Amino acid sequence: MPSPDIYVQVTVTPHDRESGHPSDSPQTALVEVPGTRIERYRKQSPYAGEATDQQLAEYLAGEIGPHALARAGFHRSGPWCIDSVALPQRPQWIEARLSDFSYDSMNAWLPTRQSFV
Length: 117
What we know:
Blueprint: E1 6-14, E2 27-33, H1 35-44, H2 53-71, E3 80-86, E4 101-103, E5 106-109
Antiparallel strand pairs: 1-2, 1-3, 2-5, 4-5
């Protein structure tokens, strides 16, 4: 059975190099990982093993999320903590919007204040 498209929320939190504690507010991106991209990664990666589609989508989204945020002006030096979680369905707030960033068949949206109203 083909893999479904999966939407992943990626949160990037900058951390202080000395203390290891968060040094700024977390930033979030939403990434659409197409089922075809998940299947391609599963075939190409020796590490995919028994991972679920959701786990692979979270990994792939964690790769693109920081790049989307950087293009939007989120530049912080030092280490980052990246958290990602697969969502159960496509969020409604992206329905009427074009993606803000695309790479390797994946699309990313950056939330706006209106996204949560």
